[in-house]
Write a structure and sequence with these properties.
- There is one protein chain.
- By secondary structure, this protein is of the alpha/beta class.
- It contains eight helices and eleven strands.
- The strands form two sheets. Strands 2-1-3-4-5-11 form a six-stranded parallel sheet, with helices on both faces. Strands 7-8-6-9-10 form a five-stranded mixed sheet, covered by helices on one side.
- The longest helix has 15 residues.
- The protein is elongated.
- The structure holds nicotinamide-adenine-dinucleotide.
- Nicotinamide-adenine-dinucleotide binds next to helix 1.
Length: 240
C-alpha cells in the first residue's frame, strides 16, 4: 500500500484521484493553493504527485523532499531549473521522477519521431516544424512536450541545432515550434515534414487527461521506496 498525497488538486489532481485503486493507494491528502502542503501536510506520506504550476513547483519539491517524501512531478515550465532540482533530490537523498508528458502513448510517440526524423537526413528538401495546440488556461509556451519533441528531432536530424517558438522567419538550423491556444483542446502535437510534393504529419492527440494520470500512477509505483533522479521517458519501457 502506498500512502499518496496529491499536491495540486486541479484538473490533473482530480483525474488522478478518480483513478486511484484503493488496493494500491491510500490517499493521505489533497493540496491546492488554499491549503498548500507546507502548512497542511501532516499524515505520513510515501509519495506525492505534484501537478501545480511553474511558479510554485520548486518550492513544493524542496518542501516535500525535505520531509523525505518521494515525488512524481508532472508540472511543466521549470526545466531551466533542472540542476536546482537535481541538487535538492541529492541533498535530501529522496526519489524523484518527472515527465513533460506522462502519457504512455506520448512516450511511444517520442520513440517513433526519433526514428522517423533520421529518415529525413538525406532529404534536405523537406522542411520540418512542430505544431502544438492546447487549451487557453495553459501557462507555459511552448508546451513541455513540444520541447521534448524538438530535443529528439534535433538529436536525430543533422540540419537542426536548436528550436525557436512562433518565429515568422526561422533560420535553416532552427526548428520552429508553432503554439496555438484553443478552448478545450487537451493536448495535440504534430511533427510536420513538408516538401513541394507532399506533407508527412506525425500526430499525437490526447482525448482526455486520463492518459497523463495513468502514467503518473505508474511512476508513483516505480518511485515508491526508491532514491534518485529519474526521467519517465528513460524508464517507462521497463514499467509497462
Ligand atoms: N506531465 C504531464 O503529463 C502533464 C499533463 C497535464 C498537465 N501538466 C502540467 O501540470 C500542471 C497542472 O496542470 P492542471 O491542468 O492540473 O492545472 P490546474 O490549474 O487545473 O491545477 C493546478 C492546481 O495547483 C494548485 N496549486 C497552485 N499552487 C499550489 C501550491 N503552492 N501548493 C499546492 N497546490 C498548488 C492550484 O490550486 C490547482 O489546484 C501544469 O504545469 C500543466 O502544464 C502536465
Amino acid at each position: 500500500m502506498i500512502n499518496l498525497a496529491l499536491v495540486g488538486y486541479g484538473k490533473m489532481g482530480k483525474m488522478i484521484e478518480s483513478l486511484l485503486d484503493p488496493k494500491e493507494f491510500k490517499l493521505t491528502g489533497t493540496f491546492d493553493v488554499t491549503n498548500p502542503p507546507k502548512t497542511h501536510l501532516s499524515e505520513v506520506t510515501d509519495v506525492a504527485i505534484e501537478f501545480t504550476n511553474p511558479a510554485n513547483v520548486i518550492g513544493n519539491i524542496e518542501f516535500l523532499a525535505s520531509k523525505g517524501i518521494n515525488i512524481v512531478c508532472g508540472t511543466t515550465g521549470w526545466y531551466d531549473k533542472i540542476n536546482v532540482v537535481k541538487d535538492i533530490v541529492s541533498k535530501y537523498n529522496t526519489g524523484f521522477v518527472f515527465a513533460s508528458n506522462f502519457s504512455v502513448g506520448v512516450n511511444i510517440y517520442f520513440k517513433i519521431i526519433k526514428e522517423a526524423s533520421k529518415l529525413f537526413n538525406n532529404f534536405g528538401h523537406y522542411s520540418v516544424s512542430i505544431e502544438e495546440t492546447h487549451h487557453t488556461q495553459k501557462l507555459d509556451k511552448p508546451s513541455g512536450t513540444a520541447i521534448s519533441i524538438a530535443k529528439y528531432v534535433i538529436e536525430s536530424l543533422n540540419r537542426k541545432e536548436k528550436y525557436t517558438n512562433d518565429s515568422s522567419d526561422p533560420s535553416d538550423n532552427e526548428l520552429n515550434i508553432v503554439s496555438k491556444r484553443i478552448e478545450n483542446i487537451v493536448g495535440n502535437h504534430k511533427l510536420v515534414f513538408e516538401s513541394q510534393s507532399d506533407s508527412i504529419i506525425i500526430e499525437h492527440n490526447a482525448k482526455s487527461r486520463r492518459g497523463f494520470a495513468e502514467g503518473a500512477l505508474i511512476a508513483a509505483k516505480f518511485i515508491n521506496c526508491k532514491k534518485g533522479f529519474f526521467k519517465f521517458e528513460d524508464i517507462f519501457n521497463n514499467l509497462t
